[in-house]
Design goal:
The structure is a single chain. By secondary structure, the protein is mainly alpha-helical. The protein has one domain. It contains 4 helices and 2 strands. A two-stranded antiparallel sheet has the order 1-2. A hairpin with a 2-residue loop joins strand 1 and strand 2. The chain is globular, with a radius of gyration of 13 Å.
């Protein structure tokens, strides 16, 4: 999760921790670009995509990647572009 310039990742590392970090860094860039609109636009869409049971079930049953949502793919692309590392 990211809030402005702060990135929060799980304490225990696994094979995807670095990819998640790059993705969350992309959200930081979105925050800088959009300012206060970030919470309204990106925050609501991202939170809904991640937490609403309908979307969770749809992603699981249809094997839809998390980054299929445009705000999430945008974050991954920005993170990859800036860090030159791979995101989720």
């Amino acid at each position: 999760m990211s809030l402005g310039l702060f990135i929060f990742t799980p304490q225990e590392e696994d094979s995807r921790t670095e990819e998640v970090r790059v993705h969350e860094y992309g959200h930081c860039i979105q925050s800088l670009l959009l300012g206060p609109l970030y919470l309204v636009v990106i925050g609501i869409i991202s939170y809904s995509w991640a937490n609403i049971p309908y979307f969770r079930k749809m992603r699981r049953e249809k094997h839809i990647p998390y980054t299929k949502c445009f705000v999430e793919s945008w974050a991954s692309k920005w993170g990859e572009w800036i860090t030159k590392e791979e995101a989720i």
